[in-house]
Amino acid sequence: MADMQENIKSGQDQHNCAVQTLLQGMQDKFQTMSDQIITRIDEMGTRIDDLEKNIADLMTQAGVDGPEK
């Protein structure tokens, strides 16, 4: 009876370990994806800022007033 309980406990421990490993892998992938998304958003913000500056420069060169604020 004790051997059976030990086998059950061992099986549960292995199952728990496998689940923890799976969850850790999923968390790592999620974190990597989140980091990539944040990096891309930051890059897009920089590009938008550059585009706005270029448009303002072109408007100045063309002698057109900028948008009213």
The strand count comes to 0
Helix proportion of residues, in percent?
Answer: over 70%
The value of Rg in angstroms is: 28 Å
Determine the N-to-C terminus distance: 82 Å
Describe this structure in words.
One of its GO terms (molecular function) is transcription corepressor activity. This is Heat shock factor-binding protein 1. The model has no long low-confidence stretch (mean pLDDT 90). The chain has 69 residues and is mostly helical. The protein has one helix at 2-62.
In short:
The chain is built from one helix and no strands. By secondary structure, it is mostly helical.
Which helices and strands occur, and which strands form pairs?
Blueprint (H helix, E strand, L loop, with lengths): L1 H61 L7
Subcellular location: Nucleus
Protein name: Heat shock factor-binding protein 1
Keywords: Nucleus, Stress response
List keywords for this structure.
transcription corepressor activity; Heat shock factor-binding protein 1; mainly alpha; nucleus; rod-shaped; HS1-bd
